[in-house]
Design a protein that fits this description.
Layout (H helix, E strand, L loop, with lengths): L2 H11 L4 E5 L2 E4 H17 L7 E5 L4 H13 L2 E4 L6 H11 L3 E4 L4 H6 L6 E4 L7 H11 L5 E4 H10 L14 E6 L9 E5 H14 L7 E4 L6 H12 L3 E4 L5 H10 L4 E4 L1 H8 L14 E4 L6 H11 L3 E7 L5 E5 L11 E2 L5 E4 L17 E6 L13 H7 E2 L2 E10 L5 E6 L4 E3 L2 E3 L1 H8 L5 E11 L3 E10 L9 H13 L11 E3 L14 H7 L5 E2 L3
Parallel strand pairs: 1-11, 3-4, 3-5, 5-6, 6-7, 10-11, 12-13, 13-14, 25-26
Antiparallel strand pairs: 1-2, 8-9, 14-15, 15-16, 17-18, 18-20, 19-20, 20-21, 22-23, 24-25, 26-27
Helix pairs in contact: 1-2, 1-3, 2-3, 2-7, 8-9, 11-12
The structure holds adenosine monophosphate.
The site of adenosine monophosphate has 19 residues, from β14, β20 and β21.
Length: 539
């Protein structure tokens, strides 16, 4: 079943249920279907047909949700892109995708300018009723963009003028629904085309794994240009639930939305949970509506899991391990019992651990208990079928029908998977393998430590020196430098969970850690930016 039909079914099943909330605006499923169909007709009037790409560079706001569903209704391919990255990166993705229409807002004005000569139409979205979209379109025209510059109101008007709202496209569900561009820690971003079937399977499995109930209410803050955001939207739609938009991340405001919108399920990157459970707003917020917690994108430390449990006392607390390419790899259902554990293969997944060596195939499995590269069978309902115009990347990542994730993991005796880290992040120090996560997990537990990232930096003696970047709590921040490094070194030495040789040899105390929009710590940037050591530990 394609996603246009999926929306139609939801609108017929629960027409009056809340589908989207954005500030003062509330859309029911009836409203959402109607606006999606009208916008679909408007896009068609711009010449967009089945399979054509529409780039959307918007924050998580109602218009981003409406355009997403308009594309599904029409059978066009939505290409959501980040407004947080450089305009040139967006222009690259827009050109690479071959989009003919790009939709933008004030926050992505520079991005619109950068692709103003690539697309045929630029559509400006402003604040409803205040005329700002017309102003934005005018500024683009004035800047000399070759594209025609319209507003979302023009798009709606064109849709309305084209007659009765069209039915959802008659579309095979193997057709492409969306291109997601991978954040890619190195190299050019890669387009990941995903079919209607794969996307719907991902939404269904999320609803199942995270035990969504009919009418589930979720916080829509993970970006809609990232797989977590899109599947939050899809899983909510599948159960007739509500996506409560939060355009800009702010922990205190998120807590207010949890309370006012009675949000039942939170699916966020660990960083966002970290902000939530350390927010001063917690003392007054009423969060008892939250029943289910789930995180993905990066491992959560034990300390953070414990804090989330203390704050939310959730009924379910899930670790979802997955990627843009294949939505869900594995799920662990009770983080309280095993913090950080990635669990067993998800309902649509089949996984193996193979020797982490160039040229290894899916048959080169490691012995039980050993660390290996996690590979996922592409027979999964949720899997992609290959990158957009990137045979080089296909050749690296896809071997004999299996997707090579680039992640290292090991399986415990109970059959549960533990993520060890990216192959590229592994540190080889003094000839021994050190995985950043095992060191970070210990350091996070030291008093006064807010956040930590561990990388390997070139070192004459060790080859790579285990180096910690530690963000201290405000009240501990005065004590940086050698004293803080010595205190943390003593903490590591006293820990039974960390071999002596794995403890950091160098410490840095930045004010914050660089992160990707989906909350991943950008270790590559840390490695590049690392200055002279600020404090050392000997021995
Ligand atoms: P993305 O395609 O941006 O979703 O990134 C996928 C990558 O994020 C995976 O290959 C992992 O490296 C990492 N990742 C996703 N989920 C988890 C998780 N639950 N635990 C640890 N790493 C994760």
């Amino acid at each position: 079943m394609n996603l246009g039909l999926s929306l139609l079914y939801a609108a017929e099943r629960t027409p009056d249920a809340d589908a989207v909330v954005d500030g003062e605006t509330r859309l029911t499923y009836r409203d959402l279907q109607q606006v999606a169909a009208t916008l679909a007709a408007g896009l068609a009037a711009l010449g967009v047909g089945q399979g054509n790409r529409v780039a959307v560079v918007l924050k998580n706001r109602r218009e981003a949700v409406e355009l997403y569903w308009a594309c599904q209704w029409l059978g066009a391919v939505v290409v959501p892109l980040s407004w947080r990255v450089a305009a040139t990166a967006v222009a690259y993705c827009v050109a690479d995708s071959g989009a003919t229409v790009a939709v933008f807002e004030e926050a992505s004005f520079e991005h619109a300018l950068a692709c103003g000569d690539t697309v045929e139409h630029l559509v400006a979205v402003g604040t409803a009723g205040d005329g700002s979209s017309a102003g934005l379109a005018e500024r683009l025209r004035a800047a000399g963009c070759a594209a025609r510059c319209e507003t979302d109101a023009d798009l709606l008007a064109a849709g309305e003028a084209s007659g009765p709202a069209p039915p959802p496209a008659d579309l095979d569900d193997r057709q492409t629904s969306i291109f997601l561009y991978t954040s890619g820690t190195t190299g050019r971003p890669k387009g990941v085309p995903r079919s209607h079937a794969a996307e719907r399977a991902g939404g269904l499995s999320q609803a199942l794994h995270q035990s969504y109930r009919p009418g589930e209410r979720t916080l829509g803050v993970m970006p809609l240009y990232h797989t977590m955001g899109i599947h939050t939207l899809l899983a909510a739609q599948i159960v007739g639930g509500c996506f409560v938009c939060q355009p800009d991340w702010d922990a205190a405001a998120a807590l207010e939305l949890v309370e006012s919108e009675r949000i039942g399920s939170l699916y966020l990157a660990p960083t966002l949970f970290h902000d939530l459970v350390h927010s001063p707003g917690l003392t007054t917020a009423e969060v008892s509506s939250v029943r289910a917690l789930a995180y993905a994108g990066a491992a959560m430390t034990s300390a953070l899991v414990e804090r989330c449990v203390a704050v939310f006392a959730p009924e379910v607390f899930i670790n979802h391990y997955g990627s843009t390419e294949v939505y869900t790899y594995s799920v662990h259902f009770d983080q309280r019992a095993a913090p950080g554990c990635a669990g067993r293969p998800a309902t649509n997944a089949r996984l193996r651990l193979v020797r982490p060596e160039p040229g290894a195939g899916p048959g080169d499995e490691v012995a039980p208990g050993e660390i290996g590269e996690i590979v996922c069978h592409l027979g999964s309902d949720e899997a992609f079928a290959g990158y957009w115009k990137r045979p080089d990347a296909d050749a690296r990542a896809i071997r004999d029908g299996w997707y090579f994730t680039g992640d290292l993991g090991r399986c415990d005796t109970g059959g549960n998977l533990w993520i060890v880290g990216r192959i590229d992040d592994m540190i080889i120090s003094g000839g021994e393998n050190v995985h950043p996560l095992e060191v970070e997990d210990v350091l996070e537990r030291a008093p006064g430590v807010r956040e930590v990232a561990v990388v390997g930096l070139p070192d004459d003696r060790w080859g790579q020196a285990v180096t910690a970047f530690v963000v201290l709590d405000a009240d501990a921040a005065g004590a940086t430098g050698e004293a803080a490094a010595a205190r943390l070194d003593a903490h590591c030495l006293a820990s039974a969970d960390l071999a002596r040789f794995k403890r950091p040899r160098r410490y840095h105390f930045p004010d914050a850690l660089p992160k990707s929009p989906s909350g991943k710590i950008l270790r590559r940037l840390l490695r590049e930016q690392a200055a002279e050591p600020a404090g050392g530990a000997s021995g």
